[in-house]
Write a structure and sequence with these properties.
Strand content: 5-15%
Number of helices: 2
Shape: globular
Largest sheet: 2 strands, antiparallel
Radius of gyration: 13 Å
Oligomer: single chain
Order of helices and strands: EHEEHE
Number of strands: 4
């Protein structure tokens, strides 16, 4: 079991976060539009995981892309 006391969800300015240059996942336009519609309807449900030191995205590159497209200035 993961000890959630070690982790903290904070909101970070999108200008501070860097998409991972090594992101292996490539989405097609249909998948992107589906995620865009979902985030637009209900918001970001899952936070974006970021390396605390480098601010590189570890998990959530696609969610970050959608959030910036929708004009988010901060993300969890």
């Amino acid at each position: 079991m993961i000890d959630m006391k070690k982790y903290e969800i904070v909101y970070v300015a999108v200008s501070e976060i860097r998409p991972a240059p090594y992101n292996p996942r490539k989405w097609n336009d249909k998948e992107y539009k589906k995620l865009l519609a979902s985030v637009e309807a209900i918001g970001l449900v899952e936070p974006i995981v970021v390396n605390k030191k480098t601010k590189n995205i570890i998990s959530g590159n696609q969610r970050f892309k959608v959030a910036t497209t929708l004009g988010y200035t901060q993300v969890p």
